[in-house]
Amino acid sequence: MEHVIVDSNIDTVEKKVVDFIHGKGFKVFDNIDQKAEADNVGLEIPETRLIIFGNPKVGTLLMQENDDVTFELPIKVLLIAKDDQTELIYRDPCDFPGNDQLKEQGKKIIEKMHHMYQEMMEAAK
After folding, report:
1. What phi, psi does 85 have (nearest 5°)?
2. Given the DSSP bridges, would you call strands 2-6 and 27-33 parallel, antiparallel or unpaired?
3. pTM for the whole thing?
4. Beta-carbon count within 10 A of 79 CB
5. How far is it, in rounded angstroms, from Cα 49 to Cα 32?
6. Radius of gyration of the chain (CA)
7. Quick check: 2 and 92 in contact, CB under 8 A?
8. Which residue from 2, 4, 18, 1 is spatially nearest to 82, judged by alpha carbons?
9. 83 vs 30: CA distance, rounded Å
């Protein structure tokens, strides 16, 4: 897992991340407020949001190549409030199980996803 700390509150970072995702032509499938879910069962965690997103046209190409990679899709980023900062956590696509069994097209997609996450981290700052 990759961890990045951003010197902004979670709401600001969430907006930047979602705007980045949409700007790249990706679809946000869900944005789960995990703190709200914890609150609903009487437990406490810091503000935590799981953004699940992807591009079905691209993700499906990976799914066609390897079922192990399919398990990692759609891709996601986790945001956790840390005082006045936000921690972003994601799995580098280069570390996806089955990645080493992809064909050339799949490897290129994984590399683009890797760079997209790096761009997202910069955009979140």
Report:
1. -120, 170
2. unpaired
3. 0.95
4. 22
5. 5
6. 15
7. yes
8. 4
9. 25
Among 14, 110, 121, 28, CA closest to 69 = 110
Distance from CA of residue 83 to its chain's centroid? 21
- Rounded CA gap, 1 and 69, in Å? 16
Sheet containing strand 48-54, edge to edge, reads 2-6, 85-90, 75-82, 48-54, 27-33
Per-residue pLDDT of the chain (125 residues; tens, 9 = 90+): 999 999 999 999 999 999 999 999 999 999 999 999 999 999 999 999 999 999 999 999 999 999 999 999 999 999 999 999 999 999 999 999 999 999 999 999 999 999 999 999 999 99
Distance CA 3, CA 59 (A): 23
